[in-house]
Structures are given as structure tokens and as C-alpha cells.
Recover the amino acids of this structure.
């Protein structure tokens, strides 16, 4: 210290003392004080220890007790004679700073020897700058008493007293040493006990995170861990985030700030530091140069961020924050938070691997649908629910799939299955589940209310799959059967058996069907109506195959009979299979052309092309016919009206085909 200037002294408001001057100094620590300290928590014990010391030494103006809370960091655990607000900015210090401020010998530091000096205030020697304003210096000399407290050959705490020189002499130094020799082991025992308890709570929280069941959503386990981290660290809120490119996504949150975009506090520079594995502490976020005003306005004041590195391509972070200024976790808590962050990273990696293994165990690798194991598991779960809902099991089998393999090869056949899986995954009803049982056999599990129409739902799926093209002129064909639990059966085995029986009956009918009009008979059968003629012409324009044209003609025939426009003809003999398919087409005539049906929760499903042709043909033939209260519209007027509603009401492809046969329409209308 320079000899040409007086020493600086720290003069802060002194707290009142209850002791009387001249009171005799006791020579031993009372049993009452020992019991009191042992029954308290660490913070309270430190406070009481200083309180008793100052009661016996009324001349001491300030007292500070620094306690090791990390490998080589000390935090201020108790103090007297200084206002709380004045010390808010003081953070933990490294041991070397305290050792330098001690001014005694290195042997004295490790030996726990008290040192009395007349130099500047101890805090000036510890900190290069203090976060509070000093009052005018005292008019009398002051002294510092610094006492390292040693245990297991290590300094675990440092006591500093500041007093006028007349109040703190060698006799008082000896008493302080004797007093602390009796009190310090008790304080250390209380502190270590509490630290062990805190560590045990943290380890319990970390172990609970590792025990998260794979059946429980990971987010719930992470939220529980965040709630524990918030409580144990003394923070008010926490967030778990992950970096996705330049974006930040919140995975879980707890405590204060729900709905507040706290993750916006992470600037690009902070993000780079976190990705590099650095932790960040911001004790005064409102003074941080890159702070977000809306977060400060909402109350955010302190922020502590720990990186979580899963692997080289992914990184995340654990955020803890408070509405109090200068809140940061102590060194021990930071170490435990680091363990928690590492555990979160491990659990997320393990969860990802477990999910991938589960996906592989329960997923068909070719189609991406559930496999047979997943089907059996889900079917058993659903049928064991007693919730008043029904479960529809639909079994599907691809007709002639062996011929596809033989004709086009296995690679092409696999591509057909891949497209089928994509259709079912992307266009199935919400909640419906699709599975590949093996080869060309598939299943659907459909859960719904008792008002669910199983036939309509199953046929919608058949229509959806039969839109898949195998070649330029061939589409996929599907046989199906279904059964309803508990309406049809009360156990899984019979549910499966009935659905399987129905599917094979359907396949037999489809294999045995005959054309509606056998070759050589077409010219003798005349269903000479505008709708029938227009439907046939549209089928030709759309290049529909023979079987699809037969279904369309049968559908026209049934529709016009149902409307009373024609009578049944004994010359028209339809086999059961064709009759069934024609009836299925009529189920969709009133549906939206792309399958949207909000009442059933269905969106974007294809319906049979024959039904889409009938929708357009009926609209046109009705428009060009006069009805009561409306004159017949011309061909061009009818076409214009239908063209306006393409995509909204009608399939645009069918509308385009209608517009392409204008000359036929004009001739047919004139005739």
C-alpha cells in the first residue's frame, strides 16, 4: 500500500447492537448456542453464529462470513453491519482473491491463523470495484481481522471483521479465534449436512428423470425435471430449448413466465457460446446490452443458461430465470444443474433410440404402416376399453397381386405397396390405424361412436385404394371384409374370424362376377336415356377400362330406376358382384367429389371415378331439361355453369372431359 495516502475505509450503516459496552467475554461456547445452531438450516446457523459473535464484541462495525460452495469459489453466506441492498451485486469469488486479501503468511492461511491489519477495507482488496457507494471515511483508524477456517487441510470459510482499532485488539483476536474454534465445526457440520440433503434431492430428481417410462410422453418427464430444477435452484422459472438451425424451439417449461418467449433472450452470440459448451450467467438482464425490452417489461431480471450437447449435429440449453436482480445459482447448485443438464441430454438420446427401436419393432419397413405385432397389440387394447364406443376391424386383400409381381416384377410390385402405405398414412381418417399383416394383406382398426357406418367407412377406404394405378390401364383392386366390436362379437378371435370370412366371400364374388353386357348382346340392349348416353360418352373420353365402364352403366341403370325415370328390364341381368359395386358407387353420388365429409371427419379422400362421372352427368342432363318454374338451359349455358364449379363441386378432370365433347352434347340435345 502507498505510504503517501491514508487507508480507505468502508463506512456503511451499522446495524444496532443489543450488547452493552464492557460486557465480559465468555471463554466457551454455550450448550444452548450449540443446540440452537444444530437445529437450524445452514443460512440461519451462519446468521446466528455472527449474531452471537457481535453481541459479545459490540465494537465491531461489520462482519462477513465467506463459505466455500464449489471447488475453489466462496460465496457470502452471512454478514452484519451492512444493508442487504448494498451487497446485491457481490458474487462468489475465487479462493485466490480471498487469500490475497488475507495479508498473512501462506502458512497462516492454511493453518487457520487470525491476522489483524490496519490496511484498507478487506472488500477493497477482494474486489477491484464495489457495486455500491461508500460513505465518508471514519475519523479514527480502523482494522481488519481475517480468520481462515480450516478443515481437512483446506480453508472452507473465511471470517472478516471490520472495526475501529480501539475496539479490536489482540485480546479480542484471541477471543474470536477461540469462539470460532468452538462454533466453526458446528457450522461446517450443519452446512455439509444441508449440502448433502440438497445433493440428495438433486440426485432424486435426476434419477426420476432416468426412470421416465417409455409409455409416458418424454415432455411430461422433462417438465417434472424442470419443476424440480426450478425449486431446488431457487429460480422462478425454467425452459428446455433445442436449436434447430437458426431457430429455437421450446421442448418443456415450468414455473414463472408461462407463455413468455424467454427463449428470445438468447441472441446469436449467446447461441454460439452455448453450442460451444459454455454456460452463461446474466445477473442483471435489464442491463444486458442485447436485452429484449418486452422481456424486461414482463419482469425478467436474471438469467442462467446451461448448454446441453447431444451430439455434433444437435444442441440445446437449460434456462433458469428469476424476476429478482442478481439471482444466480451458487457454485454447488451450478454443478448439480450441470449434472441435470447432462442427464436431460442422455435421456433425450436414449428416448430417441428407444423410439427408433420401437418403430422398428412395430412398423412394416416397406410401407411404413404398423406391422402384425402392432396390429395385435392395438386391437387388444381397443377392445378392452369399456367406453361405449365401437371398434371396426377391416381386413383387406389385394386382388391379383401375384399377377402384378409376375407381370411387372417385384420392384414394381413393391412400389405399388409403398404408394399404398403412403395413401393410408396421409389420407386416413384422424384416429384410424392401418397395418400390413404380411404380403398383400392389410388391416384397419377404426374406433368411433355407435353411429359410425362401418360399410360406408370400409367402402371409402376401398375406393381410396382402388385409385392407385398399377399401370396405364390398370388400377389396384381390393377385397375387404369387416366386423364390429362389440356389436357383432364380444371377443377378438371371433372379430377377426368374421372379418376374415367376409373378406374371402367378397373376394369370391369379385372373382366370379360377369360383365353387365356380354359380348354380342350390347347392340340388343338399349337403355336409351340422356344420362346413360352421356355417361357412356364421358367414359370413352376418360378412357375408362371395360370393367369400370360396366360399373358406371350398372350405376346409371340403378340410379334411374331409383328415381323412377326407367323401369326394370328383364333383359338386364346383373350378377351379385356387379350389383354390389354399382350400389357402392351410388353411396358416393351425394358426396363431395374429393371425399370431403366434415360430419364424418373425412377430408381429401378419393371416391370412385364412376361416382364422379355420374355427378357431372346428372348435373348437365338436369340443366338442359325444363322443370317447373325454370326453362331449360342451353348446352353452352349448362357447360359454363358446370365449369365455374369445377374443383368446388365437381372433379375438374371429368369437367374437362365434358367440355371436350361439346359437339356430341349439341347433337344429342338437338336430337
Amino acid at each position: 500500500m502507498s505510504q503517501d495516502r491514508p487507508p480507505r475505509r468502508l463506512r456503511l450503516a451499522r446495524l444496532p447492537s443489543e450488547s452493552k459496552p464492557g460486557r465480559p467475554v465468555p471463554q466457551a461456547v454455550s450448550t444452548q448456542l450449540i443446540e440452537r445452531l444444530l437445529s437450524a438450516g445452514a443460512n440461519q446457523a451462519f446468521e446466528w453464529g455472527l449474531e452471537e459473535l457481535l453481541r459479545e464484541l459490540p465494537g465491531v462495525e461489520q462482519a462477513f462470513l465467506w463459505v466455500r460452495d464449489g471447488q475453489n469459489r466462496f460465496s457470502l453466506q452471512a454478514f452484519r453491519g451492512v444493508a442487504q441492498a448494498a451487497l446485491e451485486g457481490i458474487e462468489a469469488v475465487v479462493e485466490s482473491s480471498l487469500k490475497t486479501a488475507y495479508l498473512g503468511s501462506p502458512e497462516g492461511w492454511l493453518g487457520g491463523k487470525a491476522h489483524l491489519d490496519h490496511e484498507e477495507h478487506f472488500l477493497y482488496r477482494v474486489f477491484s470495484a464495489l457495486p455500491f457507494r461508500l460513505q465518508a471515511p471514519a475519523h479514527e483508524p480502523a482494522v481488519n481481522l481475517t480468520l481462515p477456517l480450516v478443515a481437512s487441510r483446506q480453508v472452507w470459510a473465511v471470517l472478516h471483521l471490520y472495526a475501529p482499532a480501539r475496539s479490536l485488539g489482540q485480546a479480542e483476536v484471541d477471543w474470536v479465534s477461540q469462539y470460532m474454534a468452538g462454533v466453526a465445526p458446528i457450522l461446517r457440520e450443519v452446512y455439509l449436512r444441508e449440502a448433502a440433503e440438497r445433493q440428495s434431492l438433486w440426485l432424486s430428481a435426476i434419477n426420476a428423470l432416468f426412470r421416465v417410462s417409455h409409455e409416458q410422453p418424454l415432455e411430461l418427464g422433462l417438465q417434472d425435471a424442470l419443476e424440480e430444477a426450478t425449486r431446488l435452484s431457487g429460480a422462478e422459472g425454467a425452459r428446455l430449448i433445442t436449436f434447430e438451425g437458426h431457430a429455437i424451439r421450446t421442448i418443456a417449461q415450468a414455473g414463472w413466465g408461462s407463455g413468455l418467449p424467454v427463449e428470445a433472450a438468447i441472441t446469436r452470440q449467446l447461441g454460439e457460446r452455448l453450442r460451444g459448451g459454455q454456460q452463461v450467467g446474466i445477473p442483471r438482464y435489464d442491463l444486458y446490452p442485447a436485452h429484449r425490452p418486452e422481456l424486461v417489461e414482463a419482469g425478467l431480471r436474471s438469467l442462467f443458461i446451461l448448454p446441453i450437447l447431444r451430439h455434433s449435429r444437435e444442441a440445446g440449453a437449460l434456462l433458469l430465470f428469476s424476476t429478482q436482480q442478481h439471482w444466480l445459482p451458487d457454485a454447488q447448485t451450478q454443478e448439480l444443474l450441470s449434472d441435470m443438464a447432462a442427464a436431460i441430454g442422455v435421456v433425450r438420446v436414449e428416448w430417441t433410440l428407444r423410439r427408433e427401436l420401437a418403430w422398428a419393432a412395430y412398423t412394416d419397413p416397406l410401407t411404413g404402416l404398423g406391422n402384425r405385432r402392432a396390429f395385435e397389440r392395438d386391437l387388444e387394447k381397443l377392445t378392452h376399453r369399456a367406453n361405449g364406443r365401437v371398434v371396426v376391424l377391416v381386413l383387406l386383400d389385394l386382388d391379383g397381386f401375384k399377377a402384378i409381381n409376375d407381370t411387372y416384377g417385384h420392384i414394381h410390385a413393391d412400389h405399388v405397396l409403398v404408394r399404398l402405405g403412403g395413401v393410408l398414412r396421409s389420407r386416413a381418417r384422424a384416429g384410424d390405424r392401418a397395418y400390413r399383416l404380411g404380403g398383400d394383406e392389410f388391416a384397419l382398426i377404426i374406433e368411433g361412436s355407435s353411429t359410425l357406418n362401418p360399410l360406408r367407412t370400409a367402402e371409402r377406404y376401398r375406393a381410396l385404394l382402388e385409385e392407385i394405378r398399377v399401370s396405364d390401364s390398370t388400377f389396384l383392386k381390393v377385397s375387404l371384409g369387416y366386423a364390429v366390436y362389440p356389436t357383432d362379437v364380444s371377443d377378438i378371435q371371433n372379430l377377426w374370424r368374421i372379418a376374415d370370412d367376409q373378406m374371402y366371400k367378397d373376394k369370391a364374388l369379385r372373382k366370379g362376377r360377369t360383365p353387365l353386357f356380354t359380348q354380342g348382346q350390347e347392340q340388343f340392349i338399349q337403355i336409351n336415356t340422356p344420362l346413360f348416353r352421356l355417361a357412356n360418352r364421358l367414359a370413352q373420353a376418360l378412357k375408362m377400362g371395360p370393367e369400370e365402364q360396366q360399373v358406371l352403366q350398372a350405376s346409371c341403370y340403378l340410379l334411374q330406376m331409383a328415381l323412377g325415370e326407367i323401369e326394370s328390364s328383364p333383359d338386364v341381368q346383373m350378377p351379385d358382384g356387379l350389383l354390389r359395386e354399382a350400389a357402392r358407387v351410388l353411396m358416393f353420388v351425394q358426396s363431395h367429389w374429393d371425399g370431403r365429409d366434415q360430419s364424418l371427419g373425412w377430408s381429401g379422400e378419393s371416391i370412385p371415378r364412376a361416382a364422379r362421372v355420374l355427378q357431372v352427368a346428372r348435373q348437365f342432363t338436369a340443366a338442359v331439361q325444363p322443370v317447373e318454374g325454370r326453362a331449360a338451359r342451353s348446352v353452352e349455358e349448362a357447360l359454363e355453369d358446370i365449369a365455374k364449379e369445377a374443383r368446388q363441386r365437381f372433379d375438374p378432370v371429368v369437367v374437362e372431359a365434358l367440355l371436350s365433347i361439346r359437339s356430341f352434347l349439341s347433337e344429342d340435345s338437338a336430337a
